[in-house]
Amino acid sequence: MKESPIVIVGSGLAGLTCAWAATEPCVLVTAESLTSGAASMWAQGGVAAALAPNDSTQDHADDTWRAGALAGDRAVIDRITGVAPEIVRLLTELDVPFDRAADGSLDLALEGGHRRPRVAHAGDHSGAAITACMASAVLHSPTVDVRENQSLVEILADDHGAVRGVLVRRTDGTTETIETSRVVLATGGLGGLWGHTTNPTTALGQGVALAARIGARTDDLHLVQFHPTALDVPRDPLPLLTEALRGAGAKLLADGSRFVEELQPRDVVAAAVWEQLGAGRKVRLDAREIPDVTSRFPAVAAIAEGCGLDLATDLLPVRPALHYSMGGLTVDQHSRTSVPGLWAIGEVSRTGLHGANRLASNSLLEAVVTGRAAAQDACGPLPGAWAENLPQVDPATVLPRNDIATLSVQDVRALLSSACGVLRDGATLERAVERLAPHTGEDVPYVAWLIARSALAHPHSIGAHRRTDDVHARNTDRTETHQGATA
């Protein structure tokens, strides 16, 4: 079936990059219009890369390693941060309008966990700017067949467990089977499974569910990052207040007093904010001392204004919200999953880059790197030995599907928010696993069950995974990651 097209599912930055980089015909399937519903479009920060004269890819790798609580794959970290400057140059050639300093060099922003400014950005709407440029390149590609308003229903496997096609559903309810031996999942994350999230509420881990059902291995699903500064207003999802605000000097205040070093890794700051909220204090982000804050952060200013707040004069109420999944479908350096013929890229994948806590602005970088790797691999000869370095899947996680909806999305959101929030404990997790287990025939409870099961299986706190019943909990304050950042 090598003559069949490559099928790419998802039109965020990872999926678009894969389609753009592919040298063979491919079909790009997206549930809405191109880029709609993609978390990439919402990213405010930018792309982290060692571009300054006083920076190095080794320093970027070291910051990524430490921010991830020393739990990442060091070889993966070195490989992806090593090509980061090349990725920024590639995006520049695609006419991404990165901000420039007065001398014409890239204006590099400082974000939490980085020891120095290294984030190339396009205002405070970098994700939208980068994704739109990649989408334009895809639309001008003669080898890409874009199929909008088509949802992935099932990944089809043959008797040997290899991919043989996909089943998609159009908005009119009709379905189509696309026969192919090469499928690339770029379906995004699973943040919509939590009650407080900065993700699109459609991000329900569909890619994880469909791939896991045919035997794809997952890892680190319990490692989900809570962004410490979501705007605490009655909206769903919650608006995000970019990390770059704190990099520019914004302070976190609890009942008017500063309580944390704001440029520590996100898991540390989120836990500190959660502690203050749990004590009944009101937490606010103070950006009033940032010069020209509304012109420097126009997207954030517009968000605040839409909520009746003024970025330049008001203290902004904040709370942690689910932001990113470090875990997902386990992949190798070629973005191959454990299922022959199935690749996973972007947030749906678990590469090992992020460890137990993602360093700010490494996600758009990972999307481009993994998308390009999958395209290069899928366009080459299909290997005889497939992803032989990946561990085998746990058979207990491979469960069949049925169409009986027995637990609502809102019920799942409430359950995960309670059991898998910023702080977790074994007894609550055990009850969540038991509650979800009878409902795994439906995709949303199935993914939630996989997450809760993973959290229960890891009794020790690390990075974003905070167990209140871990008697051996170590100090997770990694202040050394940002020494010099505020100098």
UniProtKB/TrEMBL annotation:
Task: Set out the biological process GO terms recorded for this chain's protein.
Answer: 'de novo' NAD+ biosynthetic process from L-aspartate
Metabolic or biological pathway, per its Swiss-Prot or TrEMBL entry = Cofactor biosynthesis; NAD(+) biosynthesis; iminoaspartate from L-aspartate (oxidase route): step 1/1
Question: In its keyword annotation, does this UniProt entry include Flavoprotein?
Answer: yes
Enumerate the SUPFAM superfamilies for this protein.
FAD/NAD(P)-binding domain (SSF51905), Succinate dehydrogenase/fumarate reductase flavoprotein C-terminal domain (SSF46977), Succinate dehydrogenase/fumarate reductase flavoprotein, catalytic domain (SSF56425)
- Which keywords appear in this protein's UniProt record, sorted alphabetically? FAD, Flavoprotein, Oxidoreductase, Pyridine nucleotide biosynthesis
Looking at the record, the residues that make up the FAD-dependent oxidoreductase 2 FAD-binding domain are 6-364
Q: Which Pfam families match?
A: FAD_binding_2
Question: Which top EC class is given?
Answer: oxidoreductase
- The record's region (Disordered) falls at 462-487
For this entry, the protein name equals L-aspartate oxidase
Report if keyword Flavoprotein is assigned: yes
UniProt lists compositionally biased (Basic and acidic residues) regions at: 466-481
| Similarity section | Belongs to the FAD-dependent oxidoreductase 2 family. NadB subfamily.
